[in-house]
Amino acid sequence: MHQVHPALRQPITAADRVLQEIQRAIVEGDIAAGSKISEPELARRFDLSRAPLREALARLERCHLIERIPNAGARVVTLSTAGLLALYQLRENLEGLACKLAAEHMTDAEITEVRQLLDQHLSSQRVREGESYYQEAGDLDFHYRVILGSKNSYLINILCDELYFLVRMYRVQLGMNGPRVSRAFDEHKAIINAIANRDGELADLLMRRHIAASRRNIELQLQQMGT
Amino acid sequence: MHQVHPALRQPITAADRVLQEIQRAIVEGDIAAGSKISEPELARRFDLSRAPLREALARLERCHLIERIPNAGARVVTLSTAGLLALYQLRENLEGLACKLAAEHMTDAEITEVRQLLDQHLSSQRVREGESYYQEAGDLDFHYRVILGSKNSYLINILCDELYFLVRMYRVQLGMNGPRVSRAFDEHKAIINAIANRDGELADLLMRRHIAASRRNIELQLQQMGT
DNA sequence: AAGCGCCAGATTGTCGACAATGTGCGCCTA
DNA sequence: TAGGCGCACATTGTCGACAATCTGGCGCTT
Fold this sequence. Notes:
Low-confidence stretches of chain A: 1-8
Strand order of the largest sheet of chain A: 1-3-2
Helix content of chain A: over 70%
Strand content of chain A: under 5%
CATH superfamily of the largest domain in chain A: GntR ligand-binding domain-like
Pfam families (chains A, B): FCD (PF07729), GntR (PF00392)
Oligomer: homodimer
Number of strands of chain A: 3
Keywords (chains A, B): DNA-binding, Transcription, Transcription regulation
Largest sheet of chain A: 3 strands, antiparallel
InterPro entries (chains A, B): GntR_C, TF_FadR/GntR_C, Tscrpt_reg_HTH_GntR, WH-like_DNA-bd_sf, WH_DNA-bd_sf
GO molecular function (chains A, B): DNA binding; DNA-binding transcription factor activity
Protein name (chains A, B): Transcriptional regulator, GntR family
């Protein structure tokens, strides 16, 4: 068996559990973007003391889901076009780098696994055409695999632990369910092919384009909501 | 006056103060790399309770200076060639991106300020030829300015808050004081020129080379220590 | 009536103690 | 004597209460 990434380990402590719950609540909008976080209220709601709650809040700040000001409390981040742009600028670069490194460091076995994963997603996606949740989970899964394949712990930490919840938040709250689903699969396929060919430069390029396309898709969504 | 970056704000709370002290202690090696962190001991040493101390530890984990395992405690990170390589791989990309964005977003006034900063460093460096501390501080200052010039808050956060203490730790503990000082200044000059010309592509390239050169320099140092 | 300062309520930061978990030594067994 | 089990100790996780700080509204002054 391969080593499980720290971020994926099952919750052990109370702080871990409440962290996951609040993370989900924020990402899915149960706790509204921009709203104030009250420590006493959350403590009552999840039936624990403020100590583990504050631990959880510290980690939420780490993945940019909340912003804290000393002596003034925490607020859920507000989504904005500027924020989305900044986030995706970073993702294009970082995941491009991840691809380049994955082309150097992934084992043949790992590449085979990812290909099997894609085939699996493809078949299940063909069946449930409009369903966006599976696609999204699958998309994240693909990206996760590639990022882990880079074997760069700092890069893995930044992308998987710190940025991905925010990416998911934008996706979920803007309701990504467009016709990009099948296109994305082809792009994933091309990327893993480049990695399998050990062509890091191409994999980098393809991933940057893939994310840029995804960004344009979301921007379009935002624009439509604005009008 | 320009807005002060959150990371640079003066300490308000007890957790902030102890964080800065421990950060310095780890970076400068007062607390040895790889050693275990004892919460009760540090609490006594800094004369405060464990609550703010744990807050500080959470932030130390955030900037990769310590590693925590639930119910088992925290250890100072151990420096390694692999870790150094991973860190600099990331820096090359991220700071390259920062340069590209800075070329797009820095104001003429900000560029002028950075140039004045460089002239200032050059003159004071000419005077104290071998002194490495000023050079290092100046180098970090230059990089900070460029990063802030990118105007991408996520990028700024990752580089200034999460990675730079680690970079400093490698530099300090490996005793960077070689003859690269004057070369580095020329490279800085070339980078800010490219930014001033709004040539993002060139600025990106030059910064990547600058950091790659710095990395090779440190690797050399490591190699010498190994023999 | 508008603006400033002050007070009350609520919230965050900090503390010391208790509960849960992990660690290392000594003892017993084979 | 080597290996495994169990207990005592130390450390981390959690709790409830107190202190410091911020927010909003009232009354006073001009």
